[in-house]
Write a structure and sequence with these properties.
This protein has 114 residues and is an alpha+beta fold. It has six helices and three strands.
């Protein structure tokens, strides 16, 4: 007859890790952020914006999509604070919000290349 496996919880380790774990709200926000990266169209837009700021019409032409579709995706990216915009006359130019966006995608590309 097999005896059950012995288990020993290392309470010090569990306590230490539990103290540094982010709160549930932060984990939820992080999961929501990564959901944004789950759409290849949004990834393509971000990759374009790595190279240059661009208006909706430029993005639409470059990506072969309608301006309406691009605008919708830009709204999602703006809401998630991944892109920012500036107005020049009647034209709005979009760019990456900060260097963190590039770091996230660079590390993702590095990971899939392994």
């Amino acid at each position: 007859m097999d005896s059950p496996p012995l288990t020993h919880v290392h309470q010090d380790t569990v306590r230490r890790v539990n103290e540094i774990m982010p709160c549930d709200e932060e984990l939820f926000d992080l999961a929501e952020l990564f959901k944004i990266f789950g759409d290849s169209t949004r990834i393509r837009i971000l990759l374009v914006l790595f190279e240059s700021e661009m208006c909706v019409c430029g993005l639409a032409e470059l990506l072969g999509m309608t301006q309406s579709a691009i605008s919708h995706q830009l709204q999602v990216l703006k809401k998630s604070k991944l892109v920012k915009y500036r107005r020049e006359g009647k034209t709005i130019f979009y760019s990456l919000a900060d260097s963190h966006v590039r770091t996230i995608l660079d590390q993702g590309m590095e990971h899939i290349a392994e």
